[in-house]
């Protein structure tokens, strides 16, 4: 490992974040993983090995959508979640959402969310240094903080008022400095999204194109957004619907147990009816080009196109 330094690894991570080179992160991860395994560093210096391991896991987070095994997501988040907070501008939820969109079955999506919540609940990774606050009762590990969320905010979807009160005046959080408060906010935001069932209109990850009074719009997580440059999105024609009817239609579809995998009305077109690639292309248009969501979706699109190209070559 003498030729590879932590400074070089940090430069690689900075490059990936700056240029959205998630494919490069995946290649670097595989190369460094092999080098680290062959180096024998774990036996010579446990401390130095852990430093390299942390950088390796950051590369894995950055290239997370190149992994299809749920256990990769589970183990990485359970054992290394705090590393997410060390990468400025990195959005873990964007990675998780991209993976969720690739799952057609909504029950399977909820199972994945439950598994990731379990990973956070069982995480012994240090998130907050309680010694800094001279408070032996303060939660310090990731799992201890998620338990504090449940104790204060409940097992169901978090009430907005209670959430604001918790973040501003919670028993422990009110004593944290701004840096540590931001850590808790990021964890809480991810955990809250994981609690929302994909069968609900607030938790459904796919965007849905609708035609309301002749005006194309996108339904996304319970909200209606204007569609721009609709000619670039290949959609199936749908009959117009009156905007006053939309909420009732959505509620009826999301709450109908007989159609758990079709939480859209006959007046809407789910992107999954088009194709996964077209779905992601349409999803991409929701985000500004400099956002982490845009980076994550565009990288997944690139990966899918490469896979398709390899399949065509084999044919």
Question: Explain this structure to me?
Answer:
The chain is mostly helical. It folds into three domains: 1-62, no CATH class; 67-198, no CATH class; 208-314, no CATH class. The protein has helices spanning 6-19, 22-39, 41-44, 46-62, 70-84, 92-101, 106-121, 142-153, 160-169, 178-195, 243-255, 276-284, 292-314; strands at 208-212, 215-220, 223-226, 268-270. α8 (142-153) packs across α10 (178-195) and α12 (276-284) packs antiparallel against α13 (292-314). The two termini are 41 Å apart. Mean pLDDT is 81; it is low at 230-274.
Q: Which secondary structure elements does this structure contain, and how are they paired or packed?
A:
Blueprint: H1 6-19, H2 22-39, H3 41-44, H4 46-62, H5 70-84, H6 92-101, H7 106-121, H8 142-153, H9 160-169, H10 178-195, E1 208-212, E2 215-220, E3 223-226, H11 243-255, E4 268-270, H12 276-284, H13 292-314
Helix pairs in contact: 1-2, 1-4, 2-4, 4-5, 5-7, 8-10, 12-13
Instruction: Give the SSE string.
Output: HHHHHHHHHHEEEHEHH
* Main sheet properties: 4 strands, antiparallel
Q: Radius of gyration over alpha carbons? A: 22 Å
Read across the widest sheet, the strand sequence of neighbours is: 3-2-1-4
Number of domains: 3
Uncertain residue ranges: 230-274
How does the overall form come out from the CA principal axes?
globular
SS element count, helices: 13
The level of helicity is: 55-70%
Ends: how far apart?
A: 41 Å
Nearest-integer average pLDDT: 81
The count of strands amounts to 4
| Share in β-strands | 5-15%
Give me the secondary-structure category.
Answer: mainly alpha
């Amino acid at each position: 490992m003498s030729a590879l330094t932590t400074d070089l690894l940090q430069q690689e991570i900075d490059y990936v974040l700056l240029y959205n080179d998630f494919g490069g992160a995946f290649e670097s991860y595989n190369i460094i993983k092999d080098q680290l395994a062959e180096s024998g560093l774990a036996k010579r210096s446990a401390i130095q090995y852990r430093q390299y391991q942390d950088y390796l896991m950051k590369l894995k987070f950055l290239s997370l959508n190149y992994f299809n095994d749920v256990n990769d997501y589970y183990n990485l988040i359970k054992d290394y979640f705090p590393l997410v907070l060390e990468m400025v501008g990195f959005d873990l939820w964007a990675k998780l959402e991209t993976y969720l969109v690739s799952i057609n079955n909504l029950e399977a999506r909820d199972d994945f969310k439950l598994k990731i919540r379990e990973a956070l609940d069982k995480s012994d990774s240090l998130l907050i240094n309680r010694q800094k606050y001279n408070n032996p009762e303060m939660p310090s590990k990731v799992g201890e903080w998620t338990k504090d969320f449940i104790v204060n905010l409940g097992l169901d979807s978090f009430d907005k008022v209670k959430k604001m009160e918790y973040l501003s005046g919670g028993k422990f959080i009110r004593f944290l400095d701004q840096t540590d408060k931001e850590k808790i906010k990021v964890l809480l935001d991810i955990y809250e999204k994981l609690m929302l069932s994909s069968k609900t209109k607030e938790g459904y990850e796919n965007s849905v194109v609708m035609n309301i009074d002749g005006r194309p719009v996108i339904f996304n997580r319970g909200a209606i957004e204007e569609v721009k440059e609709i000619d670039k999105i290949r959609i199936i024609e749908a009959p117009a619907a009156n905007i006053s009817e939309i909420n009732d239609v959505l509620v009826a579809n999301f709450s109908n147990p007989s159609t758990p995998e079709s939480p859209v009305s006959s007046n809407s077109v789910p992107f999954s009816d088009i194709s996964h690639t077209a779905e992601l292309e349409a999803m991409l248009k929701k985000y500004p080009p400099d956002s982490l969501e845009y980076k994550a979706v565009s990288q997944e699109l690139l990966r899918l196109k490469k896979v398709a190209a390899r399949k065509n070559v084999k044919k």
